Structure formats: structure tokens, C-alpha cells
Amino acid sequence: MLAVALVLLTCTGFLLWPRDEAAPEVGARELTLELPAGPGDAARVSIDATLYTPERTPAPSVLLAHGFGGSKDDLVEQAQSLAERGFVVLSYSARGFGASTGRIGLNSPDHEVNDARELVTWLAGRPQVLSDGPDDPVVGVAGASYGGALALLLAGTDDRVDAIAPMITYNDLNRALLPNAAGKPQSGAVTPAAGPESGTGVFKQAWAASLFSSGFRANPAGSDDRESEQDSPQQDGAPAAAPDQGPLTCGRFNSAVCQAYTELATTGRPSNQTVELLASLSPSSVTTSIQAPTLLIQGRQDTLFGFEEADATARQITEAGGEVRMIWYDGGHDGDSPGPDLLDEVGDWFDFHLADRGADPGTGFEYALPNTGPNDDAPIQTVSVDAYPGLAGAEGTTRENHRLVGQATPVLRPPGGEPASISSLPGVGLGGVPGGNEFATDLPGQVARFTSEPLTESVLITGSPKVSLKISAVPGQPRDGSTVLFAKFYDLSGGDDRRLPGGGVAPIRLGDLPADGSPAEVVVTLPGIVHTLDAGDRIEIAVTTTDQAYRSPQQPAVQLVELGGDEHISLPTVPGTPTQVTAQATPLFGALTVVVLGLAVAAVGAFRRKQTADFEPALADAPFATDGLGKSYGSSETAVVSDLSVRVEPGQVVGLLGPNGAGKTTTLRMLLGLIAPTTGSVRVFGHLIRPGAPVLSRVGSFVEGAGFLPHLSGLENLRSYWATTGRTPESARLDEALAIAGLGASIHRRVDSYSQGMRQRLALAQAMLGLPDLLVLDEPANGLDPPQIHQLRKVLADYAATGRTVLVSSHLLSEVEQTCDHLIVLHRGRLVASGPVTDIVAGDGQFVFAVDDPELASQALYSLPGVDEITKQERSVTARLVDAPVSTAVAVLVNAGVAVGNVGPRGRLEDAFLQLVGGENTP
């Protein structure tokens, strides 16, 4: 069996929390808590726990549970992080794991769930823990997978729980381990990933074997230095807990779980007793009683617990009046565990619901787009929606239909179910390959295929597709109720490129088919995915008789498979707003910058009163002004920006110059409200800049590269960005922005097909949407060819001629010289020059006059006070203007009868720049 080869991987404990080695230490106390015996326990159970206490107490508390096969050691970093936020945290190893005694009951209400209730009671007796009343601590519960189910089960049976954050977990163990994708939607649900209401399905043998194998580890002895908590909940005089003994074939599991697994592994079919046991261990048994605010986080790469599990939990809690926020992230049991950004979401959830601090996280829906980039470190982009579709009065999921074609095909199930098709490898995560599992294999003779025509437009699938199939028996087949098939959703993106998004497969179990060969028509709900189909891609539905991850019937059989009556596949879509770019080690710029500005505009009402008080009327006409502006980080003695005081006027094209490290980017960030100054102030049109300042609606920016949603076209990206600002589509001046971009028909292509120059032009158009009064551009000429740079130069000059202002940071000195009329030059965080380009370039005051008569011109200039060092060339005169303005010199020449062609400073910007920065010539 394939899963056996993965036992070592699983036994190490999947779902480990990410570790940040730089996290500061938090005081921790190691404990051994003795809990009362449950039904069938030989003795009390010893629970190995750690109590993390924040600096200030009493404080709200969090109970932290681990994933299956793990222990409290996997939770150290998350526990420390929550303690640093100000929570008392109790992390522990569940019975049968780590150094805790007792047998594994798979979150049995009488065992693991009761253990957790006892731990809540123990927290209620701690003086460090904030209380809602006698025996009622302020407490939240968090955990992933096994620990996530514990959080749900505890919240559904103990009303003392105030908030929960279950991650990548299950709702119904019968559905999760014995799925059946054939049937009607659950209770008419219109949520994106609602599964069907069907009977017992096909045993998920590979995952189940891996999980069961991880329960065979011996229980290690507790450390001698652990402190036994004397006032832990226990019966006086009760004997100390001792490791239970049991059949070797059961490992650490209790007899009920052991018997159920043995039955499923040998027969593939559950008895009524096993169905009832799995139902009693499932959160679905208590979700209608959960009133604690619930943050559900589910993974896109998860063949163990798919989106349908979180979908069902969200519906059940919401229908009972509970509050739910949903996040689908780019990970899962086949991918990454929830990372620091998601754990911060958990901390924010508890901050608001337990500690009454921070912003309300709300009850919206957020999903991550798949990483289709060439490397795994590419930013993960997310989309947000105000509400999870189909919940609490929200509109149901939008669906679009695509016609499939294909012939009725007989498919063979070989004796013993081998060889078998491959969809995914549990725990290894081939289903989590970016863009889909390209290693999926269907065997000849075992598969029927149905395909669509190439798509004319791209589609972002968010949820579970549905397809109708007809299945009929070939005469002479055994009638043993073993009609089992597997449906898969493939993306055919060209040639033989076949991708299985998420690695998921939809098992179908039907009863005996009609003996006369008439078909049974069923609606099949395919696994929930987040996946982009590009224009030109085709959809393929493959129906196979076997799958390596599931237990197929052993008897050979043949069925006839064809499309259902409507011959369509229904694809769910959930339109939303780009919310953030999550990168592993990059600043919050690019697309996030755009979104921050959009959200700032949307927050006008909340901040208007504060911003009005911070208005300076004398600077109302100044697009950008700073006064003593400074920025330092940490304990550094060297300021990144220091004592910067400048003022920019309307109609100017201003160049921001300086060597690397001069403070240019930091200045732009403070201007855009992305970071706060350490000293001084920055104002835009007289308004003090803070995060969310309404005046930022008058600013367009393109800073350090724009982050676009790769699956959307250029035009769709522009429209999506403008939608985040809350302004009307008409106010975007979209046609004018598109004319500036000059992308032609390419504006309708997906952005991930754009060259760097095309992305640069699209970013410039995005910054100019709405024709803002202040345009801030960082390296706008990067990736542009010379004709495009020439066009950009003219666009900026024309833009400023309308009375608007442009601030350009660039390292192309010749372009700055030709594009800008004013300069701000920084060096080591300080201002070294500010003013018109001609004044700065002139330096020592030398100007060149192109004239028709150099001799007459030199005589005329000698007559003007304040002019010296005059030299003649063949067609020009150079003079040093000490106290005489250039305009006066030109007037003297004209009055003397000299024809003046042009006038300019003698030096170049490069020379002036090198002189100002002492030779550090990299802006």
C-alpha cells in the first residue's frame, strides 16, 4: 500500500507551526496535569502541558491544541507569539501523544473533549487569567487539523469558550474518510463548496493508513523535572495515571477506534456501529450549538480535508446564529501549514474577540490565488469578499456553465482494483503543485473522458464544480452494490498538458444499477478548488474505475459512462477585491501599496474629523511639503532621512535624486502614508499625512513595481484597482489612462503574459487613473525602450502642463534632466540641493548663449553688471552670471541686435550630481 511508505513522514507530525528563530523568549512553566479518568480509562490521564504567561496579568487565555501525530512541542512559536500579544496560553499534548498518557479516542466527547473542558476549568482557577465570572475564564481555542476539530467540539459543548480558530480541519468524519460525491446539494446550499447529501462513500485508505500508523508510537516517559500541578482538577486520593495496555494491533488507539479502522481497512465498508462512532466524533454533531465567534481557515492543497468540510461548518454555525469568518489559503495537508501571516490573523481574531482591542476582523471571505510563478517564493495574492456566498442572507455562489462533449464509454475495473490510477500522494502533496498536479495518471481502458471547447475568456474557479453523469451496468455484471467510480477535473492548457488542480478526485458510490441497462443519472460534486482557466484552455472530466488513494472493490466489473442530460459543467466563481500580496521577505509595496491607497480612500468617513483638524490652510496649494521630516529605525543612530524641509508647487515635474541609501524610497513611503515619520511632518495639499488620510485620493502612485493579478487581463486589473477606491467607474478616466499605456489590443491579454515593459506601461496607466493632482512615480522608465521613454517624457510634461504635479524618482540622470524642471537631491538622508534644474546644473553660474554674432554678443554682455568670465566660441558665447538673471542677459543681447537661438547652463546634471554627493554616482 502506497500510504505505508509515507508513515515516517506522517509520524514526524505534520501540521507543524512555522518557527521564527528570532522570536523573543517568553516565560514558560512546564506542567503535568492529572485529569479524571473517562469511560474505559484504566486510570487518570496525565496531560503534558506548558503555561505561557504574558508580562501583564490578569489577561485573556488561549487553549492551544496540536495536529494529529504531533505534540505541544509543535506549538512553541505560536504560543510565544500569543503570549507576546498579551494572552495567557496553555498548550498541551492530547492524550496518547507526546508525554501525555491515555489512549487516542479521535476527539471523543467523553475523553479528549472532556479533557479540554477540564483544562478550561483549570484555567479558570489561575489568578493570571481574566474571568467572566466564577469558573468562567475568558478563553479562546485554536488548533489545526485534529486540534481544529477539538476547538469546534469544545465550543459546541462548553459555552465558556469565547472565540475559536479551527484550521484545516473536518466537519464530518464519515464524509471526510468515506466521501461520496454523487447526490443532491446539502439542504439546498448555495455556498461555493457545498458537498452533496449522500450515503456512505469510498474509503480513503491511503490517508487513513497514514494517520493510523502514526498512533503506533510508544508513549515516552515524562521528564523528571516536570512540575506536578497540585491543584489540578482531580479526585483526592486517586491513583497516579499509568500508561494503558492494549492489543499490539491497536497501537495507542482505544478499542472502539481500533475496531472501526480494522473493519474499514479489511472490508472497505462501515457497519452502522462505525458510522455512528464517526458521527459522534465529528464537529457536525455540535456545530449548531456553537455561539463563539469562529475563524475558519482551510487549505487549497488538501486531499484529506477539502473546502467542503469548512463550507459545511460555516453553514451550520451561521444557520444557528453564530459568527463566522472564512479564509482559504495556499496550503493544507498536501502543502504548507498555516504560516506567520495566517497565525497573525488568528492573533488578530483573539485580540478583538477576547481582549477588546484592534479592528473588527468581520465575517468576510478571503481566498488565495494559486502561485503560478516560476518559483515557490513568488508572492501569494489574495482576494476578499464582504461575506461568504450563501451565508446569512448573502447572495449565493455565481456559476457559469460550459458544454462538454464525449461519447458513452465502457470502463473496466480490473480484478483486485490493480493497477490503479493516480491522483495524489497523501502527505507528499503532488496535488499541491502550482497550477495543478501534472503527475496524475489514468490507465487505458479504465477511463471515460469528456471535454469542452477552448474557453473564449479566462475563468477563476472558486469552489466545487458540478457535472451530471449517466452510469449504466453492462449485462452480466455482479449485483453486489459495488458500483464505484472516480471523477476528476482536468485543465487542458495546450497540447498534452493536463493538470489536476489540487490533486483532488470525486469518489462515486452507487447501489446496484438497473439490470436492464437503463442508466442512473447523478449530479457529481467535484473537489473544491481555486484555479484559473485561461482563455484557450479546455476542461476535461475524466471518470475512472480505480484510484490509488482509495479502496476499490475487488471484483472485476464494467460500467458504461456518459454525460448527463444537460451536458454541461457548472463552474463556481466568487468575484472579489484584491486585498494583499504576501511575500516571504519583501516590503509591503507593489499591489499592496495600491490596495492600501484604495482602502485609505474607502476610510474617508472614519478619518475625516481627525484629518480636518490636521489641515494647514497656508499649504493648501502645495502638492507636497515637508517640515523637518525624519525617519529612523530601531536603535540606529543614523537616520535614514533627517531634517528634510521642501515644498513642491503645482505644475512642476520634480525629480527626486540621490545615491543608493540616500532616503528616496523612505521619503516616498512617508509621503504615501505607508510608514510614519519619526520626526517632523509631511503634508499633501495642506493635509497632514497619516495612514488612511482622505487626501491620498488625490495621489496616484507607482512605487517599486506594481503587483497585478496574473490571471486577469490588463483592463480587468485596472478596473479591479479602481473598484477598491470606492469611486464611480466614470471617474476613472479609463480611456485617457489606456491611451497613456499604449498597450493596444494587449490590454485584453492576461497580465502574466506581459513583458516587463508592458507591465511598466500598465502600472503607469494605473497610477494615472482618475488623473490625480499629484503623481508619484518610482523608476517609471524601467523596462521601456527609447521610443517609449521619449513618449513618457512628453506624457509627464503634458500632464504637468494641466496644473498637476509629478514627482519622479529615477536613476537615469539624462532622463531626469530632460523630463524634470525642478530637483530635490538627497545625500545620506539630508537635503543637499533643491530648486530648478537649470540652477542646480549651472552650479557656478556659467551659461551658454547660442548666438549669430559672438563678438557683438560678448560686447553687449560686458556692459551688463554682474557678468564676467566671458568666452567666445564659433557660434556661441559662455558667460558667468554672478548677479544678473538669465532673462536680463537675453534682453541685453536682443536689444543689441544679437539673435539668440537658445540658452542653457554650461554643465550637465551628471557633473552637478557628482559634485553634490561627492562622487557617489548611483542614484
From TrEMBL:
This is ABC-type multidrug transport system, ATPase component. One of its GO terms (molecular function) is ATP binding. Residues 231-246 have a biased composition (Low complexity). Residues 624-853 form the ABC transporter domain. Belongs to the ABC transporter superfamily. Coiled coil: none annotated. Keywords: ATP-binding, Hydrolase, Nucleotide-binding, Transport. PROSITE patterns: ABC_TRANSPORTER_1, ABC_TRANSPORTER_2. It comes from Actinoalloteichus hymeniacidonis. SUPFAM superfamilies: alpha/beta-Hydrolases (SSF53474), Galactose-binding domain-like (SSF49785), P-loop containing nucleoside triphosphate hydrolases (SSF52540). The keyword Transport applies.
